[in-house]
Specification:
The protein has a single domain, classed as Alpha/alpha barrel (Glycosyltransferase). The protein has 14 helices and two strands; from the N terminus they run ααβαααααααααααβα. It has about 325 residues and is mostly helical. The radius of gyration is 31 Å and the shape is globular. The protein starts with a helix and ends in a 15-residue tail after the last helix. Helices cover about 50% and strands about 0% of the residues.
């Protein structure tokens, strides 16, 4: 009996010693992988609302953005090659010629008169069709960009309440209407406020000069305004809508020499395969009429340099 008990006791001890290593064995590689978190898809950024070159108050007739893919293989250099520049211009013309955004059409009219782009020759007619369907006062006010003899009612000017409009509209009609008494202060405050206020102050001075209107401003105000605007293009990549507007208005003012040639090459590199640009390269795959028009302005001035160009405001009929 004692021998049997000893044998049973030994068997129990041996079984326990064999079981302990099995309990302490680490999990297999397959078990470890099952415990890893499932990868999550990366959310796409939501496009930001960007101030328009003239006004934000008019509803869009077409979608704001178009899906596309970035152009590949364009590396920034000091100067764009003629081939790359020509391709970029042609693609941009094809893209923006389809727009139904009214303010874009006004800018296309400027480019038609300045560079003779045949695809834009009916831009004013298309604008007037939109104006007939949507007779908003601001559309009538800004029509003067394309028609020197544009007629207005006083009620149209009552719609000029947005801060950007109060900077630019007085200059647009400065050959017909007296400027507000505080208008020099308006321009000075805009210049000191930065960003889009600076670019709109520059646009206003362009129109004042085209209308041969002189106002009292501090010494070197215009020169400083040019350099402050140029500084908006020096913030580095990505190419933003604000930087494009700054560079485009400098070219419109005859100050394209203040735009770094490397910036122009970066503009070409930022173009998407559908011919457009996005408001910022932090928002990939969405092209927008506003930066696309501005980029095309820049590239056309680079492609067609001249000592002077026709004015932005349509001249009086001869």
């Amino acid at each position: 009996m004692k021998k049997s008990l000893v044998v049973v006791f030994c068997v129990i001890i041996l079984s326990s010693l064999l079981a302990v290593p099995l309990l302490l064995k680490p999990p297999s590689a397959a078990s470890q992988s099952e415990q890893q978190a499932t990868p999550q898809s990366t959310p796409q950024p939501t496009p930001n609302t960007t101030p328009e070159s003239i006004s934000q108050s008019i509803p869009k007739n077409t979608p704001e953005t178009t899906e596309s893919t970035p152009t590949s293989g364009l590396q920034p250099t000091n100067q764009p090659t003629n081939d790359k520049l020509e391709v970029a211009v042609n693609n941009a013309i094809n893209y923006i010629a389809q727009t139904q955004e009214p303010y874009a059409l006004l800018m296309l009219n400027v480019l038609y008169r300045r560079f003779g782009i045949p695809e834009f020759n009916d831009s004013l007619q298309r604008y007037d069709q939109i104006l007939t369907s949507y007779p908003h006062p601001l559309l009538q006010v800004y029509r003067r960009i394309a028609d020197h003899n544009n007629t207005l009612d006083e009620t149209d000017f009552n719609a000029v309440v947005d801060v950007m409009d109060t900077i630019t509209v007085p200059a647009l009609y400065s050959d017909q209407r007296s400027l507000p008494d505080n208008y020099p202060s308006v321009l000075i405050n805009a210049k000191n406020s930065g960003d889009y206020m600076i670019t709109h102050a520059l646009l206003a001075t362009i129109w004042l000069q085209e209308n041969n209107c002189n106002i009292s401003l501090p010494d070197n105000f215009i020169e400083t305004l040019y350099h402050d605007t140029a500084a908006l293009t020096d913030r580095g990549p990505p190419i933003t809508d604000l930087a494009l507007e700054a560079a485009a208005f400098l070219y419109m003012a005859g100050q394209g020499n203040l735009v770094d040639p490397a910036f122009v090459q970066n503009v070409i590199a930022a173009q998407f395969t559908n011919g457009g640009w996005s408001t910022t390269q932090n928002e990939p795959y969405n092209t927008n009429w506003h930066p696309s028009v501005l980029a095309l302005m820049i590239l056309l001035h680079v492609a067609h340099p001249a000592a002077s160009h026709p004015p932005m405001i349509a001249p009086a009929p001869s």
